[in-house]
Specification:
The complex is a heterotrimer of chains A (620), B (389) and C (202). Chain A contains 22 helices and 21 strands. Chain A has 620 residues and is an alpha/beta fold. Chain A starts with a helix and ends with a helix. With 389 residues, chain B is an alpha+beta fold. Chain B has one domain: Cytochrome-c3 Hydrogenase, chain B, CATH 1.10.645.10. Chain C is of the alpha+beta class. Chain C has one domain: 2-Layer Sandwich (Beta Polymerase, domain 2), CATH 3.30.460.80. Classes of the chains: A alpha/beta (620), B alpha+beta (389), C alpha+beta (202). The interface between A and C is medium-sized, with 27 and 18 residues. The complex binds flavin-adenine dinucleotide and iron/sulfur cluster (SF4) (2 copies). One iron/sulfur cluster binds next to helix 4 of chain A.
Chain lengths: 620, 389, 202
């Protein structure tokens, strides 16, 4: 043992004079680091109650619970995460995956209480001292568990699009669809936003699992138009998609289309058929649009004998005669319609139901197949069938309500679209002004572009106010459609030199006048900013109204038709128990999926009505 | 004591010898389960004759949480917060190896900067673990004051972990795909300050511990591991290096950025408690140098994480792999088997203590003095949870 | 270059070729399931797995240790392929000179005859092997006759259920029946809840 080894340890004696290393008052003097994973905070306003935090928590520490003062609304389940600190390990995976980034952690880590129950709490709802702490853990930039980017949809280039009516959106490949389907968190918040309440997470999961037929069967439970809706649906679901809060929403519509495209048509019947017994009751349906055919499909599945009367030579309603082929090819629409027909639904085309009082049409006893013959009247259907459903849509274009609108160079948007569908070439010539900002305006403008016209869209409000889909506006621009916003039509004049061959469109610039909170600003004409432009054709495309002349007046009163509008019950009930209605004529949203949902609900309403009738008969 | 059992001796070298407890010559003594040294919850069942140990059996099972089993019913992302708990002093090795095996089977490439940050945390974890070990080693020989310094300075390293990862002990920083955050503002300066503080301490430790007659007296010659035991007992890390076996995964199968860093494998030849301590002490110096090198050479920006598939549905192609890393105690390894589903089929965690604390300890304790058992145990630097994953 | 051992080889592929020559594994290269005897899988330039019959395993392991330089037993564990009625034992061996790993994998019957799952012991080849085997006995119910203290509990105490690492042992069910749940917890599915709130009658 060397002396050095005895003395050496003593050389560190000065450490005895060191101040203690410990923090004297840790409760006050030792806050957690700026990133400390301490107690949870949740921004109650931003959270949508999607439950993704609950799904990822490997400790099953989270429950989704109702919270006082938080309403269930479109896009917000009204639930909020409650965390059990008896289970939580403060891993913050819940924070990392939170779709809205509402969930974070404070740097607070001291919480003492004698009641164990308080440690099961709803962050953000209980006024905790750390609720407003600035410091604490939140997801770092450059690190994200959920992919914010949508798989890009292959589309035709604008130049190619202009040369034909070929479908521009080309559809996902299997790999792309799976990748997009992978982004879904399966919260199901979208289901409430979908007018038909389709099981969206369900069919997206089917894509991930390569179960196309399973996905198709799920879609048919609520929507017999998957091929069409997969292309043109207004996709309200995507607006509320949880992922929309952190990036691009899931391409729900394109995924629906993927299933419809992939499913083998020969499997369709087997997939969608149910085993309900046949029933003897007959139901008449007026209008083979999505509303009518949806009702027909579900009624048929329930075993009823269904006949659809359609004025046009083909089915689909506005999906065919309104929506242009480049958005919804006819063969895809036919695929949907054919399935409905194949289940035994009889569709009588070229048969316009009329409002004649005395029945001069063929008797029901004449049997089917009388397409060419005189059409039955509403009255007649009412008498011959056990129930009637009508979904006759909005065929009459609204007029602009300005002077000179009867000019020969004014052609409505809807009639242009209808002509193109019918194979006729609308007389558009070169320069075209389309008035309006909805989907009809976009369709008319883009159709005109495809016919070689120079197209200007005039809209009275700002671009953000346009009811048309954002992507439609973008696509129209890509295709060379010009936009003039805040433009109010004033009158249409006939310049003498144009001799009725051109219309002089007089419009004025609008000023947007604030209408106070929650109301959109109103465009007000600035009298000093009036312009006059010459166009070959002016196309009003500002909406359509119903045409219900086929319903005799006394019947209309019974049904409850007031000023071309019908109020119906949840299941399409009208004032007359035997008569049900739905689709564009009665709903607020006026899109395909709402009409489909109306048809489905009306089928349930009719089924209930007929069953009640039957049991009444049986008991009496 | 007529019915006392006759127990066969555990050590292979004594095969065939038995201890007859009824002879009155022996005594059974339990050390633990509360911290024999600071190696965690396990216990040593000693059979002693006088104060000499004739047989030792180690008992684990006091903190079995069944991690490997739990992992089979959790998704790949859900396992990420679990794995760190398999080893308190060096959780990061679990995080890294879990992520590395998952990424290998899933075919995920990690951005370069994330690899630097991973490497930095692994070396910081080594530093913290060594400092904690100083606490144990000196404490076991009655030099608790030095131990306090070690523990305190470990805490300074944990402060750095806290600001980087949001947690002091369970960092949950290395996640499949990369890491969970950038270095906070001013981290480098604060880290360098901590490194300087530790370096300063090391001088004192050298004088007070290694040039200390008491420590020398007790540690020299205690628990000499013969060279030929190294392979036959699966001994790795400083326990092997102190026996002159120059093996270090960081050099032999460099992972992350170790092949770009400047360091030498530390060895010694005495293979006793003192030399093992000396090797660790040198490796603390080495860690300081490596961390400084990384702080200097690391790219200053760049992506820290690769977009993973949605972790809620994440499935990993069927396959199996094993990856290892050099933690302070030796070879840490993860064996991952995927059957193609969203849940691992099997995760096997290899911690160095599995052999150091059981087969090795049972064999080396024989012949030692009761008072030296704790010091011997700590000199193998073992940690029970990685035995009973 | 590995010189101190009887068989010298430089890379994993070469090693596998020698093992083929020696009849341990099949020359086949196509990917089969890990439990198929003769199967080989090269995971990377320093890691491969081979599957051999139980009778051949000890011989191969010994050869690898003494003639090929795989002196380090990294780990020994099992994977439960319950659907095939098999356990797959994995002996992971490491060559310190070339820094190669080879996983020798051995399928054994999960419930072979009355004896239950069983495998020849290698406790005499590595001192720590006995610990692995003791754990496998306890956690999987795989016996290694002759292995020291193989029947002594390792981690568990007074355990009389299914060996817990077997796939059929359900930890969740076990904890639900063994411990009492914390009262006061219930959750809601967002989609169902929204249906009740927003469109209950549709
Ligand atoms: C240009 C345009 C673009 C559109 N784009 C979209 C879009 O992208 N996405 C979307 O979701 N929706 C779109 N819509 C709206 C959508 O087409 C309608 O909401 C939907 O078609 C309404 O369905 P429906 O069944 O109520 O009526 P309709 O589809 O209008 O069908 C009514 C049917 O009843 C027939 N009918 C009417 N009267 C009689 C009678 N007396 N006897 C016999 N048959 C009769 C009609 O011929 C027609 O076939 C668009 C509409 C238009 C006009
Ligand atoms: S993941 Fe976020 S938005 Fe969704 S429920 Fe949890 S805290 Fe709310
Ligand atoms: S921090 Fe981790 S354990 Fe705690 S609630 Fe969130 S996900 Fe669950």
């Amino acid at each position: 043992m060397s002396l050095k080894d005895i003395l050496s340890p003593l050389t560190v004696w000065r450490r005895t004079a060191e101040k203690p290393y410990t923090v004297i008052d840790p409760i006050n003097d030792r806050p957690g680091a700026a990133r400390y994973r301490g107690f949870h905070k949740n921004d109650m306003e931003a959270c949508i109650g999607c439950g993704t935090c609950e799904t990822i928590c490997q400790n099953a520490a989270i429950d989704l619970v109702p919270v006082e003062g938080i309403e269930t609304t479109n896009g917000d389940s009204g639930l909020r995460p409650q965390i059990d600190y008896g289970r939580c390990c403060w891993c913050a995976l819940c924070v990392d995956i939170c779709t809205t980034s509402s969930l974070t952690m404070s740097n607070e880590y001291i919480w003492v209480d004698t009641d164990p129950e308080v440690f099961r709490f709803v962050p953000g709802a209980e006024n905790k001292p750390w609720d407003n702490s600035e410091l604490g853990y939140s997801r770092a930039e450059g690190y994200q568990l959920l992919d914010p980017e949508r798989v890009e949809m292959p589309e035709l280039e604008p130049d190619t699009r202009l040369t034909s009516f070929i479908e521009m959106v080309q559809g996902y490949s299997a790999e792309q669809a799976k990748k997009e389907a992978d982004r879904c968190v399966e919260c199901g918040i979208c289901m409430a936003a979908c007018p038909a309440h389709m099981d969206i997470p369900g069919y997206i999961k089917a894509i991930r699992e390569n179960d196309i037929n399973g996905g198709l069967a799920l879609m048919y439970q609520t929507n017999p138009f998957p091929a069409s809706c997969g292309r043109i649906c207004t996709h309200r679901c995507e607006e509320v998609c949880a992922i929309n809060h952190t990036g691009d929403p899931i391409a729900i519509r394109w995924l629906k289309r993927y299933i419809a495209d992939m499913a083998d048509e020969s499997d369709y019947q087997a997939i969608t058929k149910t085993a309900e017994p046949e029933r003897t009751e007959k139901v008449a349906i007026i209008g083979a649009g999505p509303g009518g055919l949806s009702a027909a499909y579900y009624l048929r599945l329930l075993g009823y004998q269904v006949t659809v009367f359609e004025a046009q030579p083909h089915g689909g309603g506005m999906l065919r005669y309104g929506i242009p082929e480049y958005r919804l090819p006819y063969d895809q629409l036919d695929k949907d319609i054919d399935l409905v027909a194949s289940l035994g639904v009889e569709i009588k085309y070229n048969t316009r139901i009329n409002g004649l009082k005395e029945s001069n049409g063929p008797k029901e006893s004449d049997g089917p197949g009388s397409d060419g013959g005189p059409a039955p009247s509403f009255e007649q259907l009412y008498q011959d069938y056990d129930a009637v459903f009508f979904s006759t849509g909005l065929p009459d274009p609204y007029t602009l309500g300005i002077q000179g609108e009867d000019h020969p160079r004014v052609i409505s948007g809807i009639s242009i679209l209808e002509d193109v569908t019918a194979g006729k070439t609308p007389d558009l010539r070169k320069s075209v002004a389309v008035v309006g900002g909805g989907n009809v305006a976009m369709d008319a403008a883009r159709t005109a572009r495809r016919m070689g016209c120079e197209v200007t869209v005039l809209y009275r409000r700002r671009e953000v106010d346009m009811p048309a889909d954002e992507e439609e506006i973008t696509e129209a621009k890509e295709e060379g459609v010009k936009f003039i916003t805040q433009a109010i039509p004033v009158r249409i004049e006939d310049k003498p030199e144009a001799k009725g061959e051109q219309a002089a469109f007089v419009w004025g610039e609008a000023e947007m006048v604030d209408q106070g909170e929650d109301r959109r600003p109103k465009p007000v004409l600035q009298e000093d900013k009036i312009h006059t432009d010459l166009f070959d054709t002016v196309v009003p495309a500002i909406g359509q109204g119903s045409s219900l002349d086929f319903i005799p007046e006394d019947m209309a009163a019974k049904i409850g038709i007031i000023k071309y509008k019908i109020k119906v019950g949840l299941h399409g009930e009208t004032g007359e128990p035997k008569i049900f209605a739905g689709g564009d004529i009665s709903n607020r949203l006026k899109d395909a999926i709402s009409a489909i949902a109306d048809g489905h609900r009306a089928a349930k309403g009719i089924d209930r009505y007929l069953r009640e009738n039957q049991s009444k008969k049986e008991t009496s | 004591m007529t019915n006392a059992p006759i127990i066969p001796l555990t050590d292979n070298h004594q095969a065939g010898r038995r201890v007859d407890l009824s002879s009155g010559k022996y005594l059974k003594l339990w050390q633990g389960p509360q911290h024999p040294g600071i190696t965690g919850n396990m216990s040593l069942e000693l059979t002693v004759s006088g104060d000499e140990i004739v047989d030792l059996r180690t008992h684990v099972g006091y903190l079995h949480r069944g991690f490997e089993k739990l992992m089979e019913r959790r998704t790949y992302i859900q396992n990420f917060p679990i794995v760190c708990r398999i080893c308190v002093p060096e959780p990061d090795f679990n995080e890294y190896l879990y992520a590395a095996t998952v990424e290998e089977l899933a075919g995920i490439r990690v951005p370069e900067r994330a690899n630097w940050l991973r490497n930095l945390t692994l070396e910081m974890a080594r530093l913290a673990s060594f400092l904690q070990w100083i606490g144990g080693q000196t404490g076991a020989f009655g030099m608790g004051v030095i131990g306090q310094w070690g523990i305190t300075h470990r805490d300074y390293v944990l402060d750095l972990f806290e600001e980087l990862s949001g947690g002091r002990i369970y960092h949950m920083y290395i996640i499949p795909g990369g890491v969970r955050g950038e270095l906070p503002e001013g981290f480098e300066e604060r880290a360098r300050a901590v490194l300087d503080k530790v370096e300063n301490l090391l001088g004192d430790i050298e004088r007070a511990m290694f040039h200390n007659a008491v420590f020398k007296d007790r540690a020299k010659g205690l628990g000499v591991i013969p060279r030929e035991m190294i392979d036959s007992y699966g001994i790795t890390g400083p326990n092997a290096r102190a026996a002159g076996v120059a093996r270090d995964v960081r050099k032999d199968q460099p992972y992350l950025l170790y092949d770009q860093l400047d360091f030498d494998v530390v060895t010694a030849s005495g293979s006793d408690t003192y030399d093992r301590a000396w090797v660790r002490f040198q490796e603390i110096h080495q860690s300081l140098s490596l961390i400084r090198q990384m702080l200097t050479r690391m790219p200053k920006s760049g992506p820290i994480h690769t977009q993973l598939p949605n972790p809620l549905h994440w499935k990993i192609p069927a396959g199996q792999t094993y990856r290892r890393a050099e933690c302070t105690r030796g070879e840490y390894g993860y064996y991952l088997v995927s059957d193609g589903s969203g849940y691992p089929r099997r995760v096997y965690v290899r911690g160095p203590s599995y052999t150091h604390a059981v087969a090795l300890m049972e064999s080396m304790a024989v012949g030692a003095n009761i008072a030296d058992v704790a010091g011997l145990m700590v000199s193998f630097h073992t940690y029970p949870p990685e035995i009973e994953r | 270059m590995n010189t101190s051992y009887q068989y010298s080889y430089t890379n994993i592929e070469e090693l596998l070729e020698i093992l083929v020559e020696k009849g341990f594994i099949a020359p086949a290269t196509e990917q089969q399931h890990a439990t198929v005897i003769g199967r080989r899988q090269v995971q990377s330039s320093d890691l491969a797995f081979v599957t051999v019959a139980p009778e051949a395993a000890r011989h191969l392991i010994l050869d690898l240790r003494d003639r090929f330089g795989f002196t380090h037993l990294v780990l020994l564990t099992a994977v439960d392929y319950i659907e095939e009625g098999k356990f797959l034992l994995t002996y992971l061996l490491h060559n310190y000179e070339l820094h190669h790993d080879i996983g020798v994998q051995v399928p054994i019957g999960r419930e072979a005859a009355e004896a239950g799952a069983s495998m020849e012991s290698i406790h005499d080849l590595w001192a720590q092997a006995g610990t692995y085997q003791r754990e496998l006995k306890e956690m999987f119910g795989i016996d290694f006759p002759g292995s020291p203290r193989v029947d002594e509990p390792f981690i568990l105490e007074g355990w009389d259920e299914v060996p817990p690492m077997r796939r059929e042992f359900d930890t969740k069910q076990y904890s639900e029946t063994t411990y009492f749940p914390r009262p006061g917890r219930s959750t809601n599915d967002p989609a169902d809840y929204m249906r009740q709130k927003l469109y209950p009658k549709e």
